[in-house]
Amino acid sequence: MLLPDLHAASGLSRELKAASGFPFLLLPGMHTFDSLANPHQYLPSSLAATRVHLALKERKWFREEDLWRISRELVALFEEMTRWKVRLPENLADFYTELERAYKAKAGDAMMFEAHLVHELWHVMESEGPGRIAASRMELSRIARNAPGPLYVLAPDPLNPAEQEFLESWSDRVMVLHESHPPYLEAVWPAGDAPDLKTRAESAPPFAANVSLFGANGLEEAAERAEIAVRSWLEQGRKSIAIVAFDRLAARRVRALLERSGILVEDETGWTLSTASASTAVMRLIDCVASGFYHADLLDFLKSPFAFRDREEGFRETAVHFLEQVVRKRGIVSGLERCLAHCGESEQASEAIVALKEVESTLKGGSRRLSEWLDALFAALDRLGMKDALQSDVAGEALLEKLEDLRRELLPEEGKFGFSSWRRWLDLELEESTFRDAGIRSPVSFTHLFATRLRRFDAALLLGCDADHLPAEENQGIFFNQAVRAELGLPLKNPLRQIGDLKGLLCRCDEVLGIWQQTRAGEPNLLSPFLEQLNAFHLHASGSDLVDRDFAAKIPELRLENPRFAGMEGTDRPAPAVFAGLIPESITASGYASLLACPYQYHAQRILGLAAMEDVETEIGKADYGSLVHEALQVFHGKYPEVSRLADPAGELSEISAMVFRDAVESDFLARAWLFRWKAMIAEYISWQVGREREGWRIASLERKGAHLLHPDGMELELAGRIDRVEKSAEGFSILDYKVKSPEALRKMLADPGEEVQLAVYALLLDEPVQEAAFLSLDGKVTKVSREELLLEENAQRLSAVFAMMRQGAGLPAQGIEEVCAYCEIRGLCRKDYWQ
Questions:
Q1: Are residues 549 and 636 in the same domain?
Q2: Which is it for strands 782-786 and 770-777: parallel, antiparallel or unpaired?
Q3: pLDDT < 70: residue spans in the chain
Q4: What is the spatial distance between Cα 376 and Cα 358, in angstroms, rounded to a whole number?
Q5: Which residues lie below 8 Å from residue 5, measured CB to CB, with a gap of 6+?
Q6: Residues paired with 752 in a beta bridge
Q7: What sign for the dihedral angle of Cα 687, 693, 696, 702?
Q8: Which residues, including other chains, have CB under 8 Å from residue 235's CB and lie 6 or more apart?
Q9: Which SS3 state, helix, strand or coil, does residue 445 take?
């Protein structure tokens, strides 16, 4: 028996046994054409694509980056031509003539190049020996010559020439059985010429509709409706439920909701291997080697649970935690040597980096055969303790099997490839490979429309049945349009097969629910034209609509409550109290500012330690620029306390600035622009500094640390910080804080002294009579506040009062001020978007 798909075999076996009336039945062999013709010797597609790649590279017709994708397209085209017994003319000029006839145009440069490319590579591949398609054709011919008995062919697709010849050669004992459908469905989608839809509907035989349609408002509502339907069907005792997944993104969300409800799903369609975490870990390792172990790639790889699985428990976690601190603290953008130089304090981090250095030498450099690259990859996975970890994972096991199959298939190929080419090749292989978790058995299964042929289901869900997904887009490749395919004898895009499969599914299911999203990305999203036609037909035939427009309102009450959250109510604006043991004993100026801006932000970042880690800067930014200028001024004023005594103070500061910026300039070209910007401001700054000294101000200290004790609620609270610059005159002290902001922005900051507390905190730290405090722009413009405007006593009292309330159990509420929230790292934690 030849079936359209082997998924139909188990159901057909049950039907045959039931029809026989015997408790035991010796079943006939069940195959598809592909499984029956299973040749052992042929040129694998991977090897064919490799040889096409080498031929294209030799001819230099395309960019190196595109060769693998074009090679695979050509091999797919050649295999399809072989399947349909298409032969190209021996003479290139004759092929030009064929294309001109198909394109209905004279051959231009583009057409001639396409013809030349396909014609030449076709004949190159003919000399390489038969591929799987040609070998299968020969195997079918051999089997037909030794026909063992009757042959039943059930619901076949249009037969290609090899399959047709196979049936003709078998014997006279061949029966081809086509699936029939109820008259009602044949009237909905007639095969040939027919009256208009309304006329057909009015004369259609009675039909009890087993189909309903639901247009969801977005992905989440679609997934929830699907989960509710499946759960309801299972509660009704349905034993076989198909989810025909047209939309894979929606399928992922439905799977998550079903698993949360305790319902596992058997997956017949499989997932792209490149999307599995196992493949991601392997490709991230290769990315590390390609990027010279760029810090983000390195940390991402080390966080994979597949890395260093053979080490003692906690090894990887300890190593990655230490390395993350080192990388961010030292600003290490890439390179294992720099990481290793700072790993002396962690045995685990050092061991991990040493292992990665060995892997880098294993995987990098030179040209190798593809099989040799795969050998090197296997060695790298062994060295990093990944191989056993991958073997214990379903997708990881499939990945290793795929890599081993490729290695074995490519052993005969002597052509050599560089690291980048091998990386692109491997990426494409994983993109086009799928895996299935065969360990799950469930009454609910993800499947595709073709795989439902000849199968009975108690219920079926058409998930994502919109116009973009049904009819499904068929990949026709980058070579030749439909007219050329017709001229050559290749099959054309034909939605009729999908209509036939849809009719078969509808007549073999007790209940069918179609779900689509009415809008996607804010744009209207139409129902599949197939189902639109069914709905219109049903409306004319019975006067009722198949679209359920009322169910959306029922979803909240049918939604299954997660038992972990049973009895819990949604939160209002959060205002957590602080445990006594967690109340800070010190606070800085920035901490005080955070506490005023949003107490909840202070609680999360400063008390719970949830502040985001600083990113490693790959190029110099404004904050880095400010730090470098700050350092240059510290060196300059530390060396020359009185600038007015220098013959060329601007030249001295310029020279010191160049020295301070040197490392940044060497590692980042943009640092030159920042240095140039600063040098253009030096003259103004020196002019201001000289004038300042004439007014009697002298630098008293630079980078001065300070502390001031407050006593809230009888307890001590240390106010701590570091002041950029303290000056002294006969009138008292002045505090200066360097800023890269414009004077206008600084004046705006100080417009409300009660809100901007940085200068007030610095004045409290000094414990000296402060006459003034100011922000100093780097162009020498000063934005001052007087002692009275600093509100020193008020700020000290307010801070003491807040900490006293904190000790008494007062909550720290989320303020919800948009100006603060717009740049807040923890906005998602306070869930502002839900309570405001």
A1: no
A2: antiparallel
A3: 105-108, 208, 474-477, 561-571, 614, 616-618, 779-780
A4: 11
A5: 32, 450, 451, 453, 454
A6: none
A7: positive
A8: none
A9: strand
pTM value surpassing 0.85? no
Question: Which residues, 6+ apart, have CB-to-CB distance to 741 below 8 Å?
Answer: 749, 775, 777
- Residue 831 in domain: no
Q: How far apart are CA 534 and CA 518, in angstroms?
A: 17
Q: Based on the domain organization, do 797 and 664 belong to the same domain?
A: yes
Cα torsion angle, 476, 480, 486, 490, sign: negative
Q: Are residues 445 and 481 in the same domain?
A: yes
Clarify whether residues 643 and 737 are in a common domain.
yes
Q: DSSP string of 83-106?
A: HTT----SSHHHHHHHHHHHHTS-
Phi-psi region of 163 (alpha: psi -120 to 50; beta: other; left: phi over 0): alpha
Q: Which amino acid is at 614?
A: E
- Residue 283 CA to residue 272 CA, distance in Å, equals 14
Q: Which of 503, 527, 557 marks a domain boundary?
A: 557
Q: Are strands 416-417 and 368-369 parallel, antiparallel or unpaired?
A: antiparallel
Residues 638 and 779 in one domain: yes
Q: Is residue 836 part of a domain?
A: no
Whether 277 and 422 share a structural domain: yes
Instruction: Indicate if the alpha-carbon torsion angle 43, 44, 45, 50 is positive or negative.
Output: negative
Q: What is d(CA 451, CA 43) in angstroms, rounded to the nearest whole number?
A: 28
Residue with tokens 């620029």: 625
∠532-462-505 over CA atoms, to 5°? Answer: 85
> Quick one: tokens of 517?
């999203």
Q: What's the structural domain count of the chain?
A: 5
- Is residue 452 in a domain? yes
- C-alpha distances (whole Å) from 611 to each of 377, 477, 606 are 38, 49, 7
Residues in contact with 183: Cβ distance below 8 Å, sequence separation at least 6, in sequence order? 204, 205
pLDDT at 566: 62
For residue 699, what is the domain's CATH number? 3.90.320.10
- The answer for residues whose C-beta is within 8 angstroms of residue 128's C-beta and 6 or more apart is 43, 48, 51
Q: What does DSSP say about strands 698-710 and 732-739: parallel, antiparallel, or unpaired?
A: unpaired
Q: Which residues, at least 6 apart from 354, have a Cβ–Cβ distance to it below 8 Å?
A: 340
The residue segments making up the domain with residue 739 are 622-807
Whole-number Å distance between alpha carbons of 533 and 550? 21
Nearby residues of 539 by Cβ (< 8 Å), 6 or more positions away:
201, 545, 546
Claim to verify: residue 348 and residue 211 sit in the same structural domain: no
For residues 129 and 53, what is the distance between their CA atoms, to the nearest angstrom?
17
> Which of these, 398, 125, 88, lies nearest to 270 by C-alpha position?
398
d(Cα 6, Cα 12) in Å, to the nearest integer? 10
The closest alpha carbon to 88, from 493, 480, 475, 476, belongs to: 480
Which pLDDT does position 565 carry in this prediction?
Answer: 60
Amino acid sitting at position 223: A
User: Residue 345 belongs to a domain with what CATH number?
Assistant: 1.10.486.10
β-bridge mates for residue 738, sequence order: 776
Sign of the dihedral defined by the CA atoms of residues 110, 115, 120, 121, in that order: positive
Comparing C-alpha atoms, which of 257, 308, 305 is closest to residue 277?
305
- Last residue of one domain, picked from the residues 414, 435, 456: 435
Cα torsion 707, 710, 716, 721 to 10°: value is -20
| Helix axes 295-302 and 315-330, enclosed angle (nearest 10) | 160
Query: Which amino acid, one-letter code, is at 513?
Result: L
Which tokens hold the place of 241? 């439920």
Does one domain contain both 254 and 308? no
Check if the beta carbon of residue 735 is closer than 8 Å to that of residue 792: no
Of 282, 198, 306, the residue nearest 537 (C-alpha)? 198
Does 613 map to a domain?
no
